[in-house]
Specification:
BirA Bifunctional Protein, domain 2, 5-stranded mixed sheet, Translation Initiation Factor IF3, Rossmann fold, alpha+beta, homodimer
């Protein structure tokens, strides 16, 4: 932790969202640039957030019945070519190992951009009978995609993710699994990261290369642009046919397996910053914060010091016993104001201040990171912190979700006229979600994308059966779709 | 889980240790070969063991004050060349990325064989003052070393590990950290994996490339060969000078930092197999077993079925509530004998059998995987399983360590004569540990290695101050050293 305060001010969010985003990540020490093009370093405070969310998501994934495994980093180049759409989608952005152990390799190896091919090669060795199904595996790993324009967390050459891969005996079971994982992601991201989402099917143009159907959960960032936060793909039998994953069914007939794959990545860290952050820094939901509460003891005279530190130690112990992730900032030689700013930048959800008068009154001051102004502060009776603080943390968790949901709803608009849609996307503020009738034809989607830069983020599930007029061509449109400019 | 039993017998351990080792790993479904040269697949049962040991070691590492971070997979080729010994050690076995995004790279990228260079480049950005020290980071990641001869878990082109990297203000503090981590590894591997170890300094010839001193923990495998299980390196100022990691000390003088690095890898899974396994399969210590207890209900007549399954469900619930990782094997269409063999192969520490007579008597049969013959089985009163089973699991954990320690001690011998050492290493059974006086000269070490294939595994710490005669040259030797043939 640095002792000297960086003099350079954080760029205000309203002034330059992208600069603000980078400032926050660097200043809160979540990540740093690396000397390797497009690759970043996850610093301890950033990696701790990733560990917290990884552990919780891992628990939820395992509850669905999937188990973790680990497959090779390298994929023979020929594997990538076995599924036609898959190779088209990924070949342009791969990193290629051509030499190993001082010699040129006979067949170059691809650094995995995703693992469908190598995993399905193994599935073909393991799956022979309907008794071997369903096979549901997940892996946490690094993947590499050679992106031309990179951005901290959101788009990096190497990133960390989990990728689930499953094989099933029937189409219905695989389709159900695809939606189970979509709902797992939605619940996890909304409840744990306090990031509200819209969700639904992708348009054909936005599908995963090799999938029959892609489902997505998408958040709306603070600048009004959408961020894809997780995807779940129904692969049909495309990879099963390419890799010959076949099994004898209960009638002793040979069948191809039905498959899914699904993943979320370290870009979720970017979502946390862009949804919750403000000009003072990060605002971490208590569920993911490695420090949920920081206690700042305040004193001026040496004779006050011992009493204040003693009271701080008592509160620390009471909170620790109550299961709260808490620390005391005992640094000397820096002012309380410096400490307040420092922990606000790092996004700690609740600050507890203890001065000599608080000690005398048997109280502490609690300052919530999710609120601003006088309402953020309240007094707590010291002897009640073990009950009051966990309740406050729950409130903060809920309130961050409420604030973000309100912001998303305020920035989601229905449009009936193409000109109004276009004006909205051309105006300031990213544009938000546009809820429109779209006929489903690629040419209308392309027109919207080329003229407004908004893309189809999701076609919501379970729509009321209504038919409207496509916002572009006026032809009948059986469904509404959410469009937005996106990261 | 496969229903059909593989007809092929496991190669007996005494007949061909290497074939037995591979048979067990494949049959217990810990791992599988992959289509990528030298890379393996960690199957769910193997990866679950890795997750259990990773989580426990991660907890212990964090207790020492280190924090997790994540650095890029790729290292610019020029970085590897900055520390002279380091590049010599690793350059011959690296995998090289020459193309990315369809273009040839200006500077080839090395897939990390270890991360000293990239991490120390970042340390130089972050460390300026003594207040920034100590900096203690750890990362869990994959690394790649292009090995010519590979072996499941022990030597693979890609493997998983943790690597800790620390920087300190003084030599003494860095030396202390090196030994703290050695002791962390020793405690973890002995207590958690039940693998007994010898430990000490490496000889100069066996040091990590770039280290001033390497410390090691080594186990003795079932075939009498040693396996390096973890290393902790005192790097001195070698990397600090190569990467210019400097700080202002309390006297405002510029100093180079003092550093350490330390790691253990997925080869620990190999140690578990080779130390504890037998001809029936794996024997997992309860601490790492994802299934600690399997309940096998046994019945013949349909009217017995319900009662037995009901009793099994009660025992399951009681054990689950007691925090035991337990499952019931309710598979139909396979015999109890098949199930016994299957779970013995997978190394489950305790089996509970429940038949109609046991139900009538209010008892269950407990069969320990760590014992053989009639002593392995005992009757437990059903109502006491929640207390008795955790106690039994503790006993099994301890007994596996005791058995392994007895085997290691029985296979550790002092030698005064070079001929006797040579005869031992040339005889059957791997040779075990040879405890000898060695003068410390490289030529004597080389002679031993070339003529007996035994290498210096460790020079134990805290030896009694005695001087003996070098077993090779007869010159005064200030210390004893442990030599063995090694993996």
């Amino acid at each position: 932790m640095a002792y000297k305060q960086d003099d350079k001010k954080v760029t205000p969010r309203s002034q330059d969202f992208a600069a603000w985003y980078n400032d926050i990540i660097l200043r809160a020490e979540l990540a740093d640039y690396s000397p390797v093009r497009g690759c970043i370093v996850f610093r301890p405070d950033g990696f701790a957030v990733w560990e917290a969310l990884r552990d919780e998501l891992d628990r939820r994934i395992k509850e669905t019945g999937a188990r973790n495994a680990y497959f090779p980093l390298f994929i023979p180049q020929s594997f990538l070519q076995k599924e036609a759409q898959h190779v088209q989608g990924f070949a342009p952005e791969v990193a290629v190992v051509t030499h190993g152990g001082g010699k040129e390799l006979e067949e170059p190896l691809i650094v995995r951009p995703t693992s469908e091919t190598i995993i399905n090669h193994m599935f073909a060795q393991w799956i022979h009978s309907h008794r071997d199904l369903p096979l549901m595996l997940n892996q946490w790993c690094n993947v590499v995609r050679w992106e031309m324009r990179t951005r901290l967390f959101l788009r990096t050459a190497e990133f960390l993710w989990q990728e689930g891969h499953t094989a099933h005996a029937t189409r219905e079971e695989a389709e159900r699994e695809t939606l189970t994982m979509l709902e797992t992601y939605r619940g996890f991201i909304e409840e744990f990261l306090a990031v509200p989402l819209i969700y639904g099917r992708k348009s054909a143009a936005e599908r995963f290369p090799g999938a029959e159907e892609t489902y997505t959960v998408e958040g709306l960032m603070g600048d009004g642009r959408a961020l894809q936060c997780g995807t779940s793909h129904f692969l049909g039998q495309n990879f099963a046919k390419a890799f010959e994953i076949r099994f004898l069914d209960e009638q002793n007939q040979m069948q191809f397996a039905w498959q899914t794959s699904w993943g979320v990545s370290t870009r979720l860290l970017g979502a946390l910053v862009m949804v919750h952050g403000d000009d003072q820094g990060l605002r971490l939901p208590p569920a993911v914060a490695s420090t949920q509460v920081v206690i700042v003891p305040i004193w001026r005279k040496p004779e006050e010091r011992e009493k204040v530190l003693h009271a701080a130690a008592n509160v620390f112990q009471a909170l620790k016993t109550a299961g709260v992730r808490v620390r005391v900032d005992e640094r000397e030689g820096v002012t309380p104001g410096f400490k307040f700013n420092d922990w606000e930048m790092r996004g700690v959800p609740l600050r507890i201040e203890i001065g000599p008068r608080d000690v005398a009154a048997g109280e502490v001051v609690a300052a919530r990171r999710d609120l601003a102004g006088p309402t953020a502060k309240s007094k707590l009776v010291s002897s009640t912190v073990a009950e009051r603080v966990p309740a406050l943390l729950n409130e903060i968790q809920k309130n961050l979700l409420t604030q973000a949901r309100d912001a998303m709803l305020a920035n989601t608009r229905q449009f009936d006229s193409y000109d109004a849609l276009r004006a909205q996307m051309e105006g300031e503020g990213g544009g938000g979600f546009a809820d429109i009738y779209w006929c489903g034809k690629a040419e209308c989607e392309t027109k919207i994308r080329e003229e407004t830069r908004a893309t189809c983020r999701a076609i919501p599930l379970d729509q009321k059966v209504e038919v409207g007029a496509c916002i572009v061509c006026g032809e009948p449109a059986p469904e509404r779709a959410l469009f937005a400019k996106a990261y």
